[in-house]
Design a protein that fits this description.
The structure holds two protein chains of two kinds.
Chain A lengths: L1 E4 L4 H4 L13 E4 L1 E2 L8 H6 L10 E8 L5 E8 L15 E7 L16 E6 L8 E5 L6 E2 L5 E8 L2 E8 L7 E7 L11 E2 L4 E2 L1 E2 L2
Parallel strand pairs in A: 1-4, 1-15
Antiparallel strand pairs in A: 2-4, 3-13, 4-5, 5-11, 6-7, 6-12, 7-8, 8-9, 10-11, 12-13, 12-14
Chain B lengths: L10 E6 L8 H10 L12 E5 L15 E2 L2 E2 L7 H4 L7 H6 L36 E5 L8 H5 L5 E3 L6 E3 L9 H5 L5 E4 L4 E4 L4 H4 L6 H4 L6 E5 L6 H8 L4 E2 L10 E4 L22 H8 L3 H16 L5 H7 L21
Parallel strand pairs in B: 1-12
Antiparallel strand pairs in B: 1-10, 2-5, 3-4, 6-7, 8-9, 11-12
The chains are: A mainly beta, B alpha+beta.
Chain lengths: 204, 343
């Protein structure tokens, strides 16, 4: 996936529906349910073996570098019924982008003790906060220094659109995406994920 | 054996249902100690329900969880509404504005349609053989804790010192798998903090030699607390020696450590108005549905010992259950909390 040198300011790109995104093309990535077999929970592995909740089947991703040098990503995916808060056996929708902190961190396992991963996590009930996370394996997610991270979102015309911004951040070599359909019960390890790392080719 | 069974000692409780008067003092003692902060308005970690009944949360026995042949069973997490929500009252009107019209305390706003012990004193059976009993419920500190097994983040654990199930709220990310897996549905979601919460057995009190609030405050003196392996203590005697204290729903396979003395009931009337001295108004099959097949022997033992006491014979079991001295209910936890400087 190419990281487009957009020439637009970070501020204009922060609007997920803004003109700055018009005409930019990214890639549509297929999403698949994360396997429950390896979940670090006997309960999840057994109870959801025959029916894990399903969510989005694809996500559109556009990667750009703003005129200010910020690395930014816009994710958009269809969701006919947005879930913005916890409800009765419902969870807020969510999305995350994962990057290897170094080397060839395993994707399905969300890193390893030797090869951690970094994550940017958005949820509509976090009041615009983008959680910076790190993980060294399934179930090991910890909060990390969010520094220059932010996320802005919009829901329009049956689609979620989320723009992640990393001020001054380098373009990671590759990324993976996860999306949670909270209304269906997706949360934690029950999610829709890209099955492989996506290489990011920085135009600079 | 799962990772959740690594505790070296286990604190347990025995609740004598023959002494419970349904006064809810235990529930209020717990509520006023633990559930006053944000997001806990609807949380009652200790609840007392009329049985037979739908329980708290509503129809909890239909919500799944636990194990079947050691395999985790899928469950659903009870919602705020299932627990009855957090009722708002007209406290300001009654207590702070002079109340010139002498208005009584009422639920403010929309009237609730459910709450803890909503089916109070309804019970079951037909007059004159209708019946009910009260059942306090709290976390069961299960030996095979389904909640601990369920948490993918390792945020829950059983303490090796006492087997109490604890939660690291900093690690909890609000997935609620624990609430799904708990077959007793004693885990609550804090919608403000976005984490789950549950009874922690009053561990700050236990560590100071003070009984949990629900036990210490019980006017009916029906709550025994102690270590399961203490052969001189009341728990071991009631559970392992007399075998009259039984776990609730043993078929859930979590090995709960809150035990119940099953309720005896008056003899029922026959249709001709005579009394069936050999019978019980509480159907044995109902008791078995709650406490498992061991309940029949337990009831027989209780009846035998009651008769011995009535006829003037000594009964160690009755002396134990009567608890002439309240300190005998929890001999290791008799310190008065007022004597302690709490951090």
């Amino acid at each position: 996936m190419k990281v487009i040198d957009s020439g637009e300011s970070s501020e204009s790109l922060e609007d997920p529906k803004g003109q700055a995104w018009q005409g930019l093309s990214g890639e549509t990535l297929a999403l698949e349910p994360a396997p429950v077999d390896g979940q670090p929970s006997r309960y999840v592995a057994a109870a959801y073996q025959s029916g894990a909740p399903t969510g989005a089947s694809e996500v559109d991703v556009i990667a750009v570098r703003s005129s200010g040098g910020d690395f930014m990503l816009r994710l958009s995916w269809p969701d006919g019924d947005p879930d913005i808060a916890y409800g009765e056996r419902k969870f807020p929708d969510a999305a995350a982008v994962m990057f290897p902190a170094s080397g060839d961190a395993p994707l399905q396992e969300m890193g390893s003790p030797d090869q951690p991963v970094n994550l940017w996590y958005w949820r509509p009930d976090l009041d615009g906060e983008c959680q910076a996370l790190t993980a060294t394996g399934l179930g090991s997610v910890e909060r990390a220094d969010g520094g220059g991270l932010s996320a802005k979102s919009a829901y329009d015309d049956g689609k979620w659109m989320v723009v992640f911004r990393n001020q001054g951040g380098d373009v990671p070599g590759k990324a993976a995406v996860a999306v949670w359909e909270g209304g269906a019960g997706q949360r934690g390890g029950l999610k829709s994920v890209t099955g492989s790392w996506q290489n990011l080719e920085d135009a600079q | 054996m799962s990772a959740s069974t690594t505790g070296t000692r286990q604190i347990a409780m025995v609740l004598d249902l023959n002494k419970c008067i349904g006064c809810q003092t235990c529930a209020v003692a717990c509520k006023s100690l633990w559930c006053k902060d944000e997001g806990t308005d609807y949380q009652w970690w200790c609840t007392v329900n009329t049985m037979p009944g739908r329980g708290t949360p509503k129809d909890y026995e239909e919500m799944g969880g636990g194990y079947k042949d050691s395999i985790p069973v899928r469950g659903i997490a009870p919602s705020r509404e299932d627990f009855g929500g957090g009722w708002k009252f007209n406290h300001s009107e009654v207590f702070f504005d002079g109340n010139p019209e002498h208005k009584p305390l009422r639920v403010a706003g929309e009237q609730p349609q459910w709450g803890p012990n909503w089916d109070e004193d309804q019970g079951a059976g037909e007059y004159p053989n209708s019946y009910f009993y009260y059942m306090p419920r709290l976390c069961n500190f299960c030996t095979h804790a389904a909640c601990v097994d369920a948490c993918p983040r390792g945020a829950m654990a059983k303490r090796s010192s006492d087997g109490i199930v604890v939660r690291d709220e900093d690690r909890c990310r609000g997935y609620q798998f624990c609430a799904e897996a708990c077959p007793y549905k004693k885990i609550y979601f804090n919608y403000e903090l976005k984490i789950s919460q549950h009874c922690i057995g009053c561990i700050p009190r236990l560590e100071q030699g003070v009984a949990p609030a629900c036990a210490r405050q019980c006017p009916g003196r029906l709550v025994f607390v102690g270590y399961l392996d203490d052969e001189d203590g009341p728990i071991h005697k009631l559970v392992n020696e007399w075998k009259v204290a039984l776990p609730l729903h043993p078929e859930y396979e979590t090995l709960p450590n809150v035990y119940y003395i099953p309720p005896l009931a008056p003899a029922p009337f026959n249709e001709d108005g005579s009394v069936n001295e050999a019978g019980s108004r509480i159907p044995p099959e109902h008791l078995e549905s709650q406490f498992g097949p061991g309940v029949h022997d337990a009831i027989d033992t209780l009846k035998t010992e009651v008769e011995k006491a009535r006829s003037g014979e000594a009964s160690g079991l009755m002396d134990l259950l009567i608890a002439y001295n309240w300190q005998d209910l929890f001999p290791d936890f008799t310190r008065d909390p007022i004597d302690i400087t709490w951090d």
